[in-house]
Amino acid sequence: MEKIRIGFVPLHRYPFDETWAQELKKRFINVIEQRFRDFVELVYPTEKDVKMGLVTDDEDAEKTIKLFRERGVEGIVLSTLTFGDELAGARVAEEFRGAPIIVFATKEPEAIPGGFRRSDSFCGTLSLASALYRRKIPFLYGGIVFPEDKEFVNSFDNFIRVVSIYRRFVGARVGIVGPRPERFETVTFNEAKMAEKFKQRVVHITLLEVVEETKKLSDDDPSVQRIVSEISSYADTSQIPREALLKIAKLETILRRFAESKKLSGIGFRCWTEIQRYYGISPCHAMARLTQSGIMTACEVDVYGVLTMIIQYAASLEQTPPFFIDWTIKHPEKDNVFLAWHCGNAPPALCAAKCGLLYHSIMYRDVGVEKAYGTFEGRLKPGVVTISRLVEYDGEFKLFITKGRALEDEKPSFRGSWVWVEVSDLDKVYRTLIEEGFVHHASMIYGDYVEPITQFAKIAGIKAVVV
C-alpha cells in the first residue's frame, strides 16, 4: 500500500523549556520512523521552516500548513510538547478540518531547581482541546504519553488505521453491475447522501456490457490463462468443467479492466440469476479474487456492503481481505456461536484447508448445474475477527461493530463459504441488529479492529453502534 502521510505538529509555548520540547520532538520522530516506517511517511517542520523547529505562533502555523499542503498530508498529530500554543494548533487544525486529527499530551520531565514547571503539557492540552471543540473540529485524544510508551505506540497505530480508512472511504467510487435484486430492498442505498456527506460516487455499469466484453476474450488471452493457472494452483478444480473455469477468468479480467478504467474502489455485483442464465457461471469466485486483490466486491449490488468492506480492509492496512457474509443460524449446541456464511465468495487466503470450486448450491435449482459453477466452498480458518455493517436511514449513517472468534468447529458442515463464529453475547448482537435496523449482510475481517473503526466513525460523523 502507498504510505500514509502523517503531519506532526510539535507545539510549544514560551516561557516553558524549549530544549525539553526539542528533545521530545526528536524522540517522537525516532519512534514513529523506526516502528511505523513500512506504513507511514512522517512530515514535520524543521528548524529551517519554523523557530527552533517548534510551532509556537501564527507565523509558525502558516508555514506548517504550507508544508503539509505541499506534501499531501492526510492526518494530523497535534502534540503539546510543553504547554503548547493552542491557537497555533487550532490554526493548523482549521485548515485540515474533516481530516483525521489526534491530540497527544506529554508526560512531565523532572522539575528544575526552584520548582519551575518545564512543560505543563496537560494544562495546555486542555486549552488546545477546548479550541478545537469550540470550532467544532472533530478530533481524537491519544493520552498523556512519552513516545516510547506502549500507550503511545498503540494509539498511534490505531490512528494510522483511522487515516487509512478515511482516505479510502471518503471519495470512494463504487461500481454497480446491474440493478439490485427486485426482492432485496435491504440493499437500497442513497446515492445523493453518499455524494453529499462523503464525496462518494456510484458508477453504473450494465450487466449486458460486462457479459458482452467477456465474450470478446479468447481462451488463450494472457490474462485469462494467468488467472486459470493461479486458481488451479490453490483450489480443487476437479469438479468444475474447464469451460466454466475459463468463464470465471474472463469475468474477472473484464471486471478488473472496468475497475481500473473507472478508478473503482469496489464493486457491487448483480450475482443472480441473470449472470447464470446469460453467461453461464456463478460469479462468486471472481468476486472473491477481486476482493483479495484489494477491489472490494459485494454480492447482490450491496453498495453499503462494499463501503463496509472498504472500511475493514483499510483498517487492516490492506494486509488481509474481508469476507462478505450473511448473519445466519445459531449453533445447534454452543451458546453465543453463529454461522458466518455466504454462497461461495470467500477470498482464497481465508480458507482453513484447500477449498474447492463447485456449483452454486442454491442457483442450480433454477438454472441447472451446468450454468451454476463458480462458487469457492469450504470452512474458513480460525482466529479473532471483527464484524461490521454500514447502514443509512433518513440521511443518517451508522456502523455496527463487534468482535468475535472464528472457531475450528467443523460440524455440521455446509455448502458455500462458512465458519462458526463465537461472540460474547449473541442475543445482544441479534437484538441490536434488529432494533437498530441493520441488515442481513455484513463484512467480517480477521483481526481486532474495533477501536480504529470506532474512531473513524467519530471523525467521519457516523454513529458507531458497538456491541
From TrEMBL:
> Isomerase as a keyword?
yes
Keyword annotations for this protein, in alphabetical order, are: Carbohydrate metabolism, Isomerase
Q: Name one Pfam family in it.
A: Fucose_iso_C
Give yes or no: UniProt keyword Isomerase: yes
GO MF: isomerase activity
Q: Which CDD domains match?
A: L-fuc_L-ara-isomerases
Q: What species was this sequence derived from?
A: Ignisphaera cupida
- The name this protein goes by in its record: L-fucose/L-arabinose isomerase family protein
Q: Which residues form the L-fucose isomerase C-terminal domain?
A: 342-464
Q: Which InterPro entries match?
A: Fuc/Ara_isomerase_C, Fuc_isomerase_C, Fucose_isomerase_N/cen_sf
